[in-house]
Amino acid sequence: MRHLLSTEGIDPADATAILDTAANLKQSLEGREVRKLPTLRGRTVITMFYENSTRTRVSFEIAGKWMSADVVNVSSSGSSVSKGESLRDTALTLAAAGADCVIVRHPASGAAHRLADWLKHTGTSVVNAGDGMHEHPTQALLDAATLRERLGDLRDRRIAIVGDVLHSRVARSNVHLLTALGAHVTLVAPPTLLPSGVERWPVTVSHDLDADLPSQDAVMLLRVQAERMHGGFFPSAREYSIAYGLNERRLALLPDHAVVLHPGPMLRGMEIASSVADSPRAAITDQVRNGVHVRMAVLYHLLAHEEETA
Amino acid sequence: MAPRQRGATDPAGERELLSAGDVARTVARMAHQIIEKTALDAPSAPEVVLMGIPSRGAPLARRLAAKIKEFSSVAVPTGTLDVTLYRDDLRRGPTRPLEATRLPEGGIDDRLVVLVDDVLFSGRTIRAALDALRDHGRPRAVQLAVLVDRGHRELPIRADYVGKNVPTARSEEVHVLLEEFDQRDGVVLR
Amino acid sequence: MNTLIIRGVRPYGEGDPVDVLVRDGVIAEIGDVEDDDAEVIDGDGAVLLPGFVDLHTHLREPGREDTETIETGSRAAALGGYTAVFAMANTDPVADNAVVVEHVARRGREVGLVDVHPVGAVTVGLKGEKLAELGTMAKTGVRVFSDDGHCVHDPLIMRRALEYSKALDVVVAQHAEEPRLTVGAQAHEGEQASRLGLQGWPAAAEEAIVARDCLLAKQVDARLHVCHVSTSGTADVLAWAKARGTKVSAEVTPHHLLLTDERLETYDPVNKVNPPLRTGDDVQALRRALAEGVIDCVATDHAPHAVQDKDCEWSAARPGMLGLQTALSIVVETMVETDLLDWRGVARVMSERPAAIAGLPDQGRPIEVGEPANLVLVDPGARWTVRGAELASISANTPFEGMELPARVVATVLRGRVTATSGRIPA
Questions:
Q1: What is the DSSP string of C144-197?
Q2: B76, B105, C107, C133: least buried by Cβ within 10 Å?
Q3: Is residue C134 part of a domain?
């Protein structure tokens, strides 16, 4: 594996290998005196974040540091990025400066794919940390890791993804990964927040959350971004919350073993009731914790093997 | 299948070094040696734990623990120690899958840790294991038990307990076969 | 006396090869001709067509001479078989006044490889708010007005533009894109864009404007030209409007006749264009509409862009593709080799109809004695591989890079003068 750009078309064996590695890492790091592995000593990992996301950037940074990689953070403010340097030039510069891996978050869909193309003659790996409305593969992997911890094998498990599917890279990556792992995905959203052509995705589409909840093993809530609330995608936050918010009444409709996920940051009250977010059924802090292990696993799978000869 | 003659070379170019019976006897002998050398049945004895290095070191550690229990009535805790993330040769091959690391009940601090592996060769796995161990705690002492020592050390490492010394050519491969993985016990040279 | 003999060519690909004698820019004789002093082009059985007319070209001068100039664009046009091109108004400064359009026309004449007709802007600064001085520009010879790149989206402004243009005997060419439906749009709204996370450009955003404009044109009895039709729905709207007597004409680009949004897979912005590449069903519908005359003609929307404006992330890239030197080959590939058009059909969609829409008296004329010698020789059997770096444009943003295509321009003749031969501009 040279890059991690998307979960679409991912070999289920590769996905499972990363998840197994993450689980082993988690288990081996638990309760340890020294939470640092020498595995990536001497390797340089650069995070390039063109969008603010403290949680994802920090998660990658910790993952790299716990593997002993040298982690350098480049953010769009105060760097050549804000001076108008092109993404291509920035990427080539970082590769020339010795980056073994570039982790990129960018508002343009496909930015990570472009980066991988520009860097194809270098040895640098690219990890997509979220590109526009396209994909966020490590988020999907950490969601799957969390679900596996709670539910075991995901084959034939039923998972509902609720909310702004249209603009969500988390939703896209999860649909691809969860279906690759054999789970059955239901997308629940108002039609204005579903992508065109969704009827040809390998999912079930619904507009009735109450009807779907009793059959689900997990519910994944998506963030509703503030700009959507004023974009006319739905009449009001109140109406959205009534139709698609996860409150205590709805939580009770879920089977007892069912898990609640949210990629964060949460809009308490609207997307999810506070009591639900803080309930033991919610695995939201597990998601964050697993994020580090999953990203360590990704770095391990990308960087700790012999150079692939192109 | 008829039992193979020891030392005979089969059509696949495989030569048996230890039979299933030999493996059992060797493990028993090593258990005796561990009891003797660590004096683990003495009242003032150090707490001994066995840490198997996956994959085949892990069941070997459990087998040794069972024999030690049988011979001395002392139950020594066992664990597994995956050293993959500490290897210095990760960049010389495809991605290696990780195996589980499980510290024995009570941890390793101030205990006598006996590392258990199937074959001692270059010594690099044991070097990695010593590094890994250091990150998990501070044992009072570390010893090494291997079923086969085939020579060709590249580091100043030696085993405290050796089941069988096997002179080999560097190009040859020594395979320890265990029921848990290979449906039979034995040691073969390929 | 300037004489030229074109030997062994088949007008419209029909009949046995004949010779064509051109004297003083006019076809003087067709048959077996001899003239010892004449310049000779050996046609070698090539198809002879009237020179192509492109209603939709971006020559980027003034303003972006780093990507194309009137000179380099003229060379590309001549090599592509064109004898007339219409240079779009979205230059910098915008061609919304007589000074800019006259400059463009003059530069075109100075280069002299193709008739360069400036397109005037419909509204001041392409802003869609206030009509530009259409009359003043028309007086300098402007035949076509367009805010191309932007839609004249205000229905009242569009109505006024259509109405006002009637007295000038010019045509308004609309870039049909309802702006409220395409805010941030990056790709054809559909399965592919959804999968790739690219904001959708819905077909209805084009179709709604075309329908509205057809109704307005009918209402005020004015002529309307629709730029770069890209959806099957627009073809349906055009068929309906034409059936009820609307004076509407329409063009389709070569790329919309061949490429689909499947190409977006790599996120390479060389495939980014506005309107966007659509689906295979749209491509088939556009080909049928062109064959049936619902869509009148092919126009390139030749849009050169600098490397840095294309070799970047998708959403930051500028939309547009080179087209002048590949148009003929794409039309042959999509329309001739599929038996949708014969060579007379090619002459119709690439020369006669666009000339008529723009009201050019000396272009798109029959190949007959006494007619102006604006001609192109086409080798229909040739195959060639597109290399952006080898095209005459300063820019190299061709989506057809590496594709092997049929048919080559053997020579282009502008009023009896050879402007391109064997892939070269004569010294």
A1: EEE-TTS----HHHHHHHHHHHGGGT-EEEE----GGGGTT--EETTHHHHHHT
A2: B105
A3: yes
Question: How far apart are the CA of B129 and the nearest CA of chain A, in angstroms?
Answer: 12
Q: Are strands B174-177 and B186-189 parallel, antiparallel or unpaired?
A: antiparallel
- Residue linked to tokens 């998990």: B136
Are residue C152 and residue C260 in the same domain, yes or no?
A: yes
Same domain, C378 and C245: no
> Does residue B1 register a pLDDT over 50?
no
Q: Which residues contact A263 (CB under 8 A, 6 or more apart)?
A: A139, A143, A170, A220, A222, A223, A287
Q: How far is CA C286 from CA A3, C303, C352, in A?
A: 39, 21, 19
Question: Does B93 reach chain A within 8 Å, measured CB to CB?
Answer: yes
ipTM: 0.93
Q: Which amino acid is at B14?
A: E
CATH number of the CATH domain containing C284: 3.20.20.140
**B99-130, pLDDT tens digit by residue?**
999 999 889 999 999 999 999 999 999 999 99
* Residues A253-281 pLDDT 10s: 999 999 999 998 888 888 999 999 999 99
Q: How many domains does chain C have?
A: 2
Q: What is the pLDDT of residues A146-181, one digit of tens each?
A: 999 999 999 999 999 999 999 999 999 999 999 999
Domain that holds residue C407: 3-47+371-382+402-421
Q: Residue C330: inside a domain, yes or no?
A: yes
Q: Residues of C with catalytic annotation?
A: 301
Q: Assess whether C207 and C286 both reside in one domain.
A: yes
Residues of A whose CB is below 8 A from B101: 24, 27-28
pLDDT in tens, C206-262: 999 999 999 999 999 999 999 999 999 999 999 999 999 999 999 999 999 999 999
Instruction: Specify the CATH number for the domain of residue C413.
Output: 2.30.40.10
Instruction: Assess whether C226 and C129 both reside in one domain.
Output: yes
Q: Give the A:C interface size as CB pairs under 8 Å.
A: 68
A120 touches chain C (CB under 8 A): no
Identify residue B133 by its one-letter amino acid code. Answer: L
Residue C232 belongs to a domain? yes
C267 to chain A: closest CA residue? A110
